[in-house]
Amino acid sequence: MADDTVVVWDEALLGYDMGDHPLDPVRVELTMALARELGVLDRPGVRLVKPAPADDALLTRVHDPRYLDAVRAAPRDPLFAGFGLGTSDNPVFEGMHESSALIAGASVAAAEAVWRGEARRAVNVAGGLHHAMPARAAGFCVYNDPAVAIARLLDLGAERIAYVDVDVHHGDGVQEIFYRDPRVLTVSLHETPLALFPGTGFPDETGGPGAEGSAVNVPLPPGVGDAGWQRAFHAIVPSVLRAFRPQVLVTQCGADGHRLDPLADLHLSVDGQLATYRALRALADELCDGRWVATGGGGYALVEVVPRAWTHLLAVATGEPLDPATLTPPGWRELAARRRPGHEVPLRMTDDVDPSYQPWQPSGEPTAVDRAVAATRKAVFPLLGLDPHDPRD
């Protein structure tokens, strides 16, 4: 296997543009500009690959053909309604099918490069549209590119795929699509569905008949910061992945758990997000011979957070992590200020937060995070042959 990293990129990916909407493609534009100016994309072994749109044969591995017809037709019909389209969350826009299919194709290209041994890791920061359902748009997502990429991996012969979602919102679409498929383990850490869209992702959602233990959900209370989030991540994710023994790791790396994100209420830092990316790469190295397909996802602090978080993701995927004390380049600051006037443009790649944590233990006075961890371990660990009370599991 080549020890290269593929970064799937084309400026046409910025065409997934819902207009005056929280999911603004400027977050992807500024990410790629920052990564380029910091030299991340010019590292040895990094290859930029231009994607092709996913065709109907790929998309219908996940989506209903009638839904594809609706996505194509909606921009031509000003009165169109149905399939979750034409809402404030999922407004209809020109070229909706084409831009959505291109994002799905980009995630498929990343998955193919990794599975075929052309690269050890691959990244599509424009992807991660994890809420789309088989026949319905949801949560700013038209086509579910992580699910399409996973379906493609299955078709190529993968027998065990782990999907880990660290977006602040539950990865409901991917879970729903593979809920009865024991070949796919879906793991999601997110803010509690009692407080946040989409209202799913409780610990007792553990997989359908014949796939018991294939869904793992860790709902966290509002206000959790880096230490609590890392505590929960390390109390659940390594154990379930080691029990499942995946051949490839697919991740959705939404940056909306950050304390500055306007749509949610977790209090993570860029430093904590970097720690998570490093942990995900380490798990891919340990369990999957390095095979890691990473996508972006949510993130609505368009200047302040997302470009730094995903540039850290790209750096971890392409080699050595960036020093958090690194200054953002003046040229990038000028671009960010020009593209989004009035936003505070960060000067450094850090929030000056130490993301260290105390490992979870089943004894002592439990915190709200500990109770969330215990609920998840109790619900799913026995289904995977793990002891929910043993911190070594």
UniProtKB/TrEMBL annotation:
Family annotation (InterPro entries): AcuC (IPR003085), HDACs (IPR000286), His_deacetylse_dom (IPR023801), His_deacetylse_dom_sf (IPR037138), Ureohydrolase_dom_sf (IPR023696)
Pathway linked to the protein: Ketone degradation; acetoin degradation
Histone deacetylase domain location: 21-315
A Pfam entry, by short name: Hist_deacetyl
Region (Disordered): 346-367
Keyword terms, alphabetized: Acetoin catabolism
Family: Belongs to the histone deacetylase family.
Name of the protein in its database record: Acetoin utilization protein AcuC
Provenance organism: Micromonospora fulviviridis
Lineage of the species this protein comes from: Bacteria, Bacillati, Actinomycetota, Actinomycetes, Micromonosporales
